[in-house]
Amino acid sequence: MRRALITGITGQDGAYLAKFLLDKGYEVFGTYRRLSTPNFWRSQYLGIFENLNLIPADLVDAGSIMEAIRISRPDEIYNLAAQSFVGTSFEQPIGTGDMTGLGVTRVLEAIRNFDPEIKFYQASTSELYGNSSNKQANEEVPFKPASPYAAAKLYAYWQTRIYREGYNIFACNGILFNHESPLRGLEFVTRKITNAVAKITLGLEKDIKLGNIEAKRDWGYAPDYIESMWMILQQRDPDDYVIATNESHSVKEFAEKAFDAAGLDWQEHVKTDKRFLRPLDVHFLQGDYDKANKKLGWAPKVKFGELIKLMVKEDLSRWDRWQSGERFSWDAFNYPCEDKILSRYHRMER
Ligand code: NAP
Ligand code: GDD
User: Fold this and answer.
1) Residue 43: beta bridge partners?
2) For residue 150, which of 291, 287, 281 has the smallest C-alpha distance?
3) Quick one: 36 and 58 in the same domain?
4) What per-residue confidence (pLDDT) applies to 348?
5) What digits encode the pLDDT tens for the residues 164-188?
6) Pick from 170, 199, 239, 249: CA 20 to 30 A from residue 156's CA?
7) Quick one: average pLDDT of 236-262?
8) Which residues have a Cβ under 8 Å from the Cβ of 98 and sit 6 or more positions away?
9) What CATH number did the domain enclosing 327 receive?
């Protein structure tokens, strides 16, 4: 039985990847951080929680990573753990550099020391491109990161290549464009919108405040993208691949379609608020997955319109069930109202 170690198993991609690998017959190990309150809701939601082997480890603690590898003795490591929210990376640039950047070197060093035969997947990102061009980005387009998060990921991207070329480790970058799902964190704009649509539909809220609604992203469906991670590690040679849908849409279009899916007019409910603007933003991202298509045989199945509908449907159903007294594992009921969260912006206002 093949063994996989997933860092970041409590996140969106970690949960879907764990399910995917379990279905393929893998023994799945996942690292989780010690938190004051456990957060396994995603794997509980997917019904796989009982099938996971959990190991406490933190990317800022090299010894804990080494221990996780010793315990799991994996054939493949999927490094999904990161401080992954671009907005937070402006508030916590040093912590982000440590976890999202240096953390990757800690994993690579552990592989080099423990067993260089272990295959390594690094969760690289379209944020690497930043505002480098307004064209579709493939593996040859130069990077120009525009946030502390992207700068940390750039370092991690190069370390992955350096360990591949320098130590002959099967280390690969999946350069994934934005991918969303009902398991997406509530701070990311897509789920923030679909959750608000559900609450507004049920009369629990009146409006939603957003930042830069002109920003454009190439949004795909997380379970489709998870499959590419596995495919990348099954190739004969290690390499780097762009994973995307090749379409780009604005946040405004996303909001319009999400409200429309619930029979509402977005203009009556969407407000803009400077609080959600970033010091520097990426205005346009659109990928080109041609290489992944030709070499891996990968293509996205769910596109923009369908993605929005399935996310709105799931959030509506959750709030509806919750209001009827049903209790289950999820995140939204427990999330603070954004007006209660004070940021750098509030200090500037005072
Ligand atoms: P996510 O939902 O935010 O999950 C991030 C995971 O990393 C969580 O399990 C989190 O654990 C863990 N983590 C954070 N800091 C850690 C630390 N210091 N030590 C160990 N674990 C830590 O992110 P995602 O959307 O699943 O994304 C997975 C990966 O792909 C991330 O590296 C992200 O940057 C990258 N990526 C995502 C996208 C996308 O559109 N989703 C696109 C390109 C690349 P806790 O639950 O304890 O916080
Ligand atoms: N989060 C958020 N909240 N974003 C908003 C809002 C808001 O209220 N209003 C507008 N936006 C804009 C952001 O400024 C950004 O331009 C765009 O919506 C998308 O923001 P996010 O959903 O936070 O995602 P991201 O593109 O910054 O980062 C995600 O995708 C990357 C891949 O490109 C994350 O998953 C990263 O981890 C990932 O690497």
Assistant:
1) none
2) 281
3) yes
4) 62
5) 999 999 999 999 999 999 999 999 9
6) 249
7) 98
8) 59, 60
9) 3.90.25.10
